[in-house]
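Propose amino acids for all 231 sites.
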C-alpha cells in the first residue's frame, strides 16, 4: 500500500484514513505477511478495485460482503465476484437463482460482476485482503475501519442509495445508514447454509430497481454478459 491510488471521487472523503495509526498498523501487518512468504489475495492493484470501478458520486447500490475469496485466482476486489474462468462460488450461484426468480434473468455462465460495478453497484467487502487458503485471516487488522469510512461516505451522499445487506455481519456493519434517506434491504446470507431461510424470495433486485426509478434514476441492468470481456 505504499503508493495507494484512489479513484478521484473517493480521495477527499478517504485520503485522511491513510494517515491514521490503524492504517499504518495494517500496512505493517501486510508487509510482514508477505515477508513471511504468505500469499495475499487479491493482488495489490485490486485492493481498491471496487472503488476504482464505482466512483462515489455514481454509487446507486451497495452490496456488502465480508471477506475476499481465499482460493487461487478467485478474488479481484469485488465482493461475491470471481475472475473469468473461475467456477462460480455457491453463494453467487444462489444470487443468480434469486435473480432468475425475481427478474427472469437466466443464471450467468461465469461469476465476473464488473458489469454491475460499472453501473454504480459498489461491491464492497468489509475486509479487503485475505491469506490464501485461510478464510477471515485478515479480520480485525484494520480494514473494517477503512470500509466503515467508505460506507459513511456513501451514506453522506445527497442522493438516495440502496444498501443490500445479506446476513447478520453486513447488517451490523451498516447499522448506522440513514434509513430516512436510503433504502436498506435485509435478508439472510445467500450461502447454501442459509439461503432457504429467507434469501430466496426476498426480491432484492426488483426492489432496488423500483426504488431507483421512483427517485429518477435508471434501473440497474442485472444481466451479466456471457463474455466477461463485455463487462
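Proposal:
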Amino acid at each position: 500500500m505504499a503508493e495507494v491510488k484512489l479513484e478521484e471521487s473517493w480521495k477527499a472523503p478517504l485520503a485522511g484514513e491513510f494517515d491514521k495509526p490503524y492504517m499504518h498498523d495494517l500496512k505493517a501487518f501486510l508487509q510482514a505477511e508477505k515477508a513471511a512468504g504468505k500469499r495475499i489475495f487479491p493482488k495489490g492493484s485490486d485492493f481498491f478495485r471496487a472503488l476504482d470501478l464505482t466512483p462515489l458520486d455514481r454509487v446507486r447500490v451497495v452490496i456488502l460482503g465480508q471477506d475476499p475469496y481465499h482460493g487461487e485466482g478467485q478474488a479481484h476486489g469485488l465482493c461475491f465476484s470471481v475472475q473469468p474462468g473461475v467456477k462460480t462460488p455457491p453463494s453467487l450461484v444462489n444470487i443468480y437463482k434469486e435473480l432468475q426468480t425475481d427478474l427472469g434473468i437466466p443464471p450467468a455462465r461465469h461469476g465476473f460482476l464488473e458489469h454491475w460495478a460499472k453501473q454504480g453497484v459498489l461491491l464492497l467487502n468489509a475486509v479487503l485482503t485475505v491469506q490464501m487458503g485461510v478464510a477471515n485471516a485478515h479480520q480485525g487488522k484494520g480494514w473494517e475501519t477503512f470500509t466503515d469510512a467508505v460506507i459513511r461516505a456513501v451514506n453522506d451522499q445527497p442522493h438516495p442509495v440502496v444498501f443490500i445487506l445479506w446476513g447478520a455481519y453486513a447488517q451490523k456493519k451498516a447499522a448506522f445508514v440513514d434509513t430516512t434517506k436510503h433504502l436498506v434491504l435485509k435478508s439472510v446470507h445467500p450461502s447454501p447454509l442459509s439461503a432457504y431461510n429467507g434469501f430466496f424470495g426476498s426480491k432484492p433486485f426488483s426492489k432496488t430497481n423500483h426504488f431507483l426509478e421512483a427517485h429518477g434514476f435508471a434501473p440497474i441492468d442485472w444481466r451479466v454478459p456471457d463474455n466477461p470481456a463485455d463487462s
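The mean pLDDT is 96. Residues 56 and 154 are 7 Å apart (CA to CA).
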